[in-house]
Amino acid sequence: MGNEENLTGGNSSVVVRVGDTVRRNSGPWTPAVHALLDALRASGISRVPAAAGLDEQGREILSFLPGDVVQYPLPAWIWHRSILRDAAALLRQLHDASVELAQEPLSWQLPTHEPVEVVCHNNFAPYNMVFRDKQFAGVFDFDAASPGPRIWDLCYLAYQLAPLIEGGGAGAPEGPEVLARLDELIAAYGFPFSRRDVLETLGARLRELADYSDGRAAATGRPELGDHAAMYRRDSLRMVRLAEQE
Question: How far is CA 54 from CA 19, 26, 140, 157, 173, in A?
């Protein structure tokens, strides 16, 4: 095996690059994730990793997606509307390619959400994206995928890229532009969701995410996760107020 290079991005697991592959710890959900990646690649989607089984250490093997990953605070160019549109369009492609797999009895890491329509990425956000020349080029980190409704995924992308998150970052759109970007994201996804539906679903999702983050904070002793939970609850209340205005 070649030299291992630690990679940034993704979630809290250790991820390393070996040549043109990525290695990360596997789990009971890994066969389902690899089935999803196989289905996506078979449908012609190349902007996701390809799965290649497990290595001699039991880690999953994925193809490496070349490009740049972003760190926080996010760079100002992340708000270019082409990134918003391209990300939403790819999310739609992923969902459409996963419809049949969503109905199969597989073991996923996160709970299923009803109604089951597609396999949701569940973490489709800038920190799991690859960029080339400041253009959206792909998405990785499918370990949190699980079946659910399309809007469950779309609302989280809106949270991160409209952005609807508290303190979106330097140069982030604000005020009426945020809702205009939400409309553009929905249009690029190509499904007739209303603003109100997206905002209400996001409020519910953030409440669930807050509970999860509090649990992780207690289990790991990482107080910053508790801070995240508090932000998610504030944002959830704000989404409820915004939805009521629609």
Answer: 15, 8, 17, 30, 42
